């Protein structure tokens, strides 16, 4: 999601966003809200059977698929869904896929479940609260949150509400990820000032995944944006705040194990990633707001930290803002692990968006895909869809990242959506470090941009991705 400076101006012109008072966050870094934390078997039993259990895939190798996805997107396009009242009747955000290849879609007006052929099986309406985050699947339940401060769980089979807990007055209109493991659900909440970029979620809340009872809360040094917690080891998780500072937290207690990095006063809607090499990768912009959003060439930093103790291993300067979470995995025709990093300054006419791939061990640049440039005042689908969304009572525009979050399939192909509407499949077939031509670039025009919580989801023979207004499915 874009910086609030332009967003606030546009929203004021549209008369669509209202401010609400937020409850105060607790001053301590973390606090216990129950005497005893839920006891469960530690592991990923609740998500292991699903093909794509969260908006970023499955523990432990997030954003990396176990199956190949179709490269030729135009030939393998199978079906799409948009709201029956029209493309612009809602905003669509994140996807998950269960063990039977059913697809779950979060949207501003609620959550929907489809079978793999496109038949809607159920829907959970949420308005006037909006569901901004990508959902997670765990032990027969789907987990999400809404802008009225609720975290909720739905029965995956029926869509019935199993529990709903209000953890704050508000949860932000950014695009994050609800994540669950070991019987504990995580959500960012308490949307208010201060932050380096207006209102933001001030704290992290943990809940009992079975009952919705609050367990503990953690308040980072700087608020979070597009919150993306990634589980590591037997009982911990990592995340970054909007300044790029990384935290490793004990999942059972909320206790801080270490924190590292970041640049105070800066903002990014990027996130962190974890590799199987025991390294966590984080991003930050190098200049404070609003200076950071004035140029497409405003630099950022990609940093690698030892997962055990937070020690900095390396950092490199990116030539454009790193405004989404990277993916870490094996990329086609490259040895070892790579970091796939989308770079773009969104909502900037004429700005070019690139995808860079770096060596995960050294930070060395491996290949570049030069994407399209932004042609309009807003990104694809935003301006033309504003009247319809206003009529439906949802957020008037997506105001997304320059790129979706990337996914790497089992063959090392990179899948990522761009703000100008194209959904891309990318691979370096000839190994020359430049991604170009029909053998290396496949594109499908969705006619809309992609939110920060949109991450291509892969199942056997199936690829699903949400643009800002529709769900698209491709099949081998």
UniProtKB/TrEMBL annotation:
Provenance organism: Symbiodinium pilosum
Location of the Pyrrolo-quinoline quinone repeat domain: 110-285
Keyword entries, A-Z: Signal
Entry superkingdom: Eukaryota
Name of the featured protein: Pyrrolo-quinoline quinone repeat domain-containing protein
Extent of the signal sequence: 1-18
Coiled-coil annotated spans: none
Keyword Signal (UniProt): yes
Keyword Nucleotide-binding set for record: no
InterPro entries in alphabetical order: PQQ_b-propeller_rpt, PQQ_rpt_dom, Quinoprotein_ADH-like_sf, WD40/YVTN_repeat-like_dom_sf
């Amino acid at each position: 999601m874009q910086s609030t400076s332009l967003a606030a101006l546009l929203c004021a012109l549209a008369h669509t966003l209202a401010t609400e008072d937020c409850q105060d966050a607790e001053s301590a870094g973390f606090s216990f809200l129950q005497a005893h934390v839920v006891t469960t078997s530690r592991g990923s039993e609740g998500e292991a059977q699903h093909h794509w259990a969260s908006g970023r895939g499955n523990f432990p190798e997030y954003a990396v698929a176990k199956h190949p996805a179709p490269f030729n997107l135009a030939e393998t396009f199978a079906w799409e869904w948009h709201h029956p009242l029209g493309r612009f009747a809602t905003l669509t955000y994140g996807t998950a896929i269960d063990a039977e290849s059913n697809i779950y879609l979060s949207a501003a007006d609620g959550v929907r479940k489809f079978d793999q052929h496109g038949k809607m099986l159920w829907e959970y309406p949420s308005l006037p609260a909006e569901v901004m985050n990508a959902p997670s699947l765990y032990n027969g339940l789907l987990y999400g949150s809404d802008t009225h401060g609720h975290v909720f769980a739905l029965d995956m089979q029926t869509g019935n509400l199993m529990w709903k807990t209000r953890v704050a007055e508000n949860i932000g209109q950014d695009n994050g990820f609800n994540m669950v493991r070991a019987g504990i659900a995580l959500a960012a909440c308490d949307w208010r000032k201060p932050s380096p970029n207006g209102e933001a979620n001030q704290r992290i809340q943990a809940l009992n995944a079975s009952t919705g009872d609050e367990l503990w809360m953690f308040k980072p040094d700087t608020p979070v944006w597009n919150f993306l917690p990634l589980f590591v080891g037997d009982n911990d998780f990592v995340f970054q705040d909007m300044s790029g500072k990384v935290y490793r937290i004990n999942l059972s207690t909320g206790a801080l194990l270490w924190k590292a990095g970041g640049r105070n006063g800066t903002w990014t809607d990027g996130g962190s990633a974890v590799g199987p090499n025991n390294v966590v990768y984080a991003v930050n912009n190098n200049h404070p707001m609003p200076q950071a959003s004035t140029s497409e060439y405003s630099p950022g930093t990609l940093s690698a930290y030892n997962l055990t103790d937070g020690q900095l291993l390396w950092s490199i300067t990116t030539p454009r803002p790193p405004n989404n979470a990277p993916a870490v995995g094996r990329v086609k025709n490259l040895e070892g692990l790579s970091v796939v990093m989308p770079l773009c300054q969104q909502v900037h006419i004429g700005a070019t968006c690139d995808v860079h791939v770096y060596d995960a061990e050294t930070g060395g640049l491996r290949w570049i895909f030069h994407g399209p440039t932004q042609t309009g005042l807003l990104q694809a689908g935003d301006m033309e869809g504003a009247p319809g969304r206003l009529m439906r009572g949802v957020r008037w525009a997506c105001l997304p990242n320059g790129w979706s979050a990337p996914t790497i399939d089992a063959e090392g192909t990179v899948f990522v959506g761009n703000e100008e509407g194209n959904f891309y499949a990318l691979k370096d077939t000839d190994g020359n470090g430049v991604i170009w031509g029909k053998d290396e670039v496949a594109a499908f025009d969705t006619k809309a941009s992609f939110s920060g919580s949109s991450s291509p989801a892969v199942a056997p023979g199936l690829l699903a991705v949400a643009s800002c207004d529709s769900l698209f499915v491709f099949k081998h």
